From TrEMBL:
Residues 2-182 form the Transposase IS204/IS1001/IS1096/IS1165 DDE domain. This is Mobile element protein.
Length: 195
């Protein structure tokens, strides 16, 4: 019997799981939760860039983790981060939510999430407050991570490979050829010529 399922927060997925797997606990995937927060940060950046020109063309600085920035991006990011910007406040709320998954257990995670939610909803940044309310609606599914420890990582990786093959599939004669290529790519088969 399936006991745990990981998915994003799409109502269609949730309803399908509740309908077809009524005994399974839903675990909401970290990537999709953080994506909601990233979109809120970007909304604030867009609003603020009309009056603060330095924020123009900085979208990806706020979406990436700081450790994944190039040296040039890090310099620009630090300059922006040291300013008193709404975007910086929003970014810090997002970073704080990422720490939730580092909690040791469900009890500690619950306390962390309560404190985070209070901070996120009292910051006077409407997109962040709305994103925090979405998190609150999916609270139990996020906390289920500490019981199941599952996520969508492997599935998302497979999906990206399939999407790449789909873009390259312009010359396939039929769907079966496309399916065969997907199996070949995902199977990681090694074809070696005899020596």
């Amino acid at each position: 019997m399936i006991q745990s399922i990981s998915c994003d927060m799409s109502p269609a997925f949730i309803n399908g799981i509740l309908s077809e797997f009524p005994n399974a606990k839903i675990t909401f995937d970290k990537f999709h939760v953080i994506k909601i927060m990233s979109e809120a940060v970007d909304d604030i950046r867009k609003q603020e860039q009309s009056s603060i020109k330095e924020l123009k063309n900085s979208k990806y600085l706020w979406l990436k983790n700081e450790g994944n920035l190039s040296e040039k991006q890090k310099e620009r990011f630090l300059d922006l981060k040291n300013q008193n910007l709404k975007t910086v406040r929003a970014y810090n709320v997002k970073l704080s939510l990422q720490e939730f998954w580092n909690s040791k257990n469900r009890k500690e995670a619950t306390q962390y999430l309560k404190k985070w939610y209070f901070w996120a909803t009292n910051n006077r940044l409407t997109p962040i407050t709305e994103a925090a309310n979405t998190v609150k609606k999916h609270w139990d599914g996020m906390l289920n991570y500490f019981d199941s420890k599952i996520n969508n990582g492997i599935l998302e990786g497979i999906n990206s490979i399939v999407q790449l093959q789909k873009r390259n599939a312009r010359s396939f004669k039929n769907v079966q050829c496309f399916i065969n290529i997907i199996y070949l790519k995902l199977g990681k088969l090694k074809f070696e010529l005899p020596t």
